[in-house]
Amino acid sequence: MPEPRITILDSITTPGNPVKPNDDRFGHNEACAFVIDGATGLGDRQYIDETGSDAAWIAGQFASGFQRYVTRDGKVSDVARSTSLEARAAFLGHHGDAPRYAWPLSAFAMVHATHDGFSFLGLGDSCVFLLRNDGAASLHIPIPGAYEREQVQAQRHIARTGGITKGGGALGTPETLAALRRHRESQNTPDSGAWTLGLVPEAADHLVSEELQISEKAHAIVCSDGFSDLVVLYAAYTSASLVQTAIEKGLAPMVEELRRFEREIDPEGLRYPRYKQSDDTTALLVELTPGS
Which residue would you say has higher pLDDT here, 111 or 166? Predict the structure, then answer.
């Protein structure tokens, strides 16, 4: 009997700044398709030299773990926990003095195929846009309201500085950097309730999981928040039209459109508030075929 199947139709990953590392990673196997978005480092230095940034390193650790060990039968949380334990030992074993705000972490979104159906799993602000065959569409994100809250905070930063690139940017503005560090330090603690993939194995106990009700062939975009901005920030698409356009035209022209918003239409974030002019952008277009 055929089992639920994930088919990769298209993929793209591009750095927000071509002279800086791309902190996003993606991967897939017969049981999953996922995107991992490494969070921009907030430390005064880089600790891991292997991949250009600590964020890219942690994203790569989880991408490798998911691609190698996620199966239809096993729990994704078990893979997340074991990968986190290995990353924690590797990082803190050499850099135990690193302040907590400098600990590398990442968001992720995944479509997981079991023997019976499909699920969305994630942490942070990466997401999945699902388009069913009947035209119904849905957005699946681990933290509802995350995009709106970040836009409010970014708007306050822009009000202080006059624009994204003014005053040294978000990381060069002491008040903004201090606020970002406070928020980062609070993550992966019971008090905050904001959990991400990183050096805290307990985050695996808080993976958000939602069953995807699919009775016929469906399509989905699994993406980092850089790509989801086309819907949630720039309002260039709805959830349905985003997926449908990707099916018809591919992902590359959509990223070009995104870059025009970022670099030509609103380079300083005055109309569309955000911390970065351009963000790392990664997306997978997948076809989901239910079993029978």
Answer: 111
| Torsion angle, alpha carbons of 35, 40, 45, 49, to 10 | 20
Instruction: Tell me which residue has tokens 């991992």.
Output: 36
Both tokens of 22, joined, read 């791309």
Contacts of 41 (CB under 8 A, 6+ apart): 53, 54, 55, 102, 104
User: For residue 232, how many other CB atoms are within 10 A of its CB?
Assistant: 19
CA-nearest of 112, 139, 130, 136 to 4 is 112
Can you give the CATH number for the domain in which 282 is found? 3.60.40.10
Give the Cα separation of 277 and 32 in Å (integer).
31
pLDDT tens by residue, 177-218: 999 999 999 999 998 889 999 999 999 999 999 999 999 999
Give tens-digit pLDDT for 269-281.
999 999 999 999 9
pLDDT in tens, 112-160: 999 999 999 999 999 999 999 999 999 999 988 888 989 999 999 999 8
Neighbouring residues of 107: CB distance < 8 A, sequence distance ≥ 6:
36, 37, 39, 122, 123, 124, 125, 126, 142, 196, 197, 224, 225
The answer to pTM > 0.90 is yes
List C-alpha distances in Å: 45 to 54, 89, 98, 101, 191: 10, 19, 10, 12, 27
Structural domains in the chain (count):
1
DSSP string, 152-170: HHHHHHHHHHSSTTGGGHH
Find tokens 């003014």 and name the residue: 166
Read out DSSP for 205-268? GG-EEEEE--SS-EEEEEE-HHHHHHHHTS----HHHHHHHHHHH-SHHHHHHHHHIIIII-TT
The domain in which residue 258 lies consists of: 5-289
